[in-house]
Write a structure and sequence with these properties.
By secondary structure, the protein is mainly α. The chain is 53% helix and 5% strand. It has a two-stranded antiparallel ribbon with strand order 1-2.
């Protein structure tokens, strides 16, 4: 799954705020739920238009992004 299948950023949808593709649910809502201690299941229950696969892929994307950043940073100072 590529990032455009996970999130959409368009000026005519939620004023350009990143949303889960094919929804009007801001990605920020997921992080707000997780920061508040809510479960992924609670988020998906409250936002049924978001698919679990989208959330898992988004989290995996950012995990890989940060892993690459850390590895790049380590190699730069090695």
């Amino acid at each position: 799954m590529n990032i455009s299948q996970i999130i959409t950023i368009a000026p005519d949808i939620q004023s350009g705020e990143p949303v889960f593709t094919h929804t009007r649910v801001p990605v920020k809502n997921l992080f707000d739920y997780l920061k508040a201690g809510d479960t992924l299941e609670a988020f998906l229950y409250d936002f049924p238009s978001v698919r679990k696969e989208q959330v898992v892929e988004l989290l995996t994307f950012f995990e890989n992004f940060f892993q690459l950043s850390v590895n790049s940073h380590d190699n730069h100072f090695a």
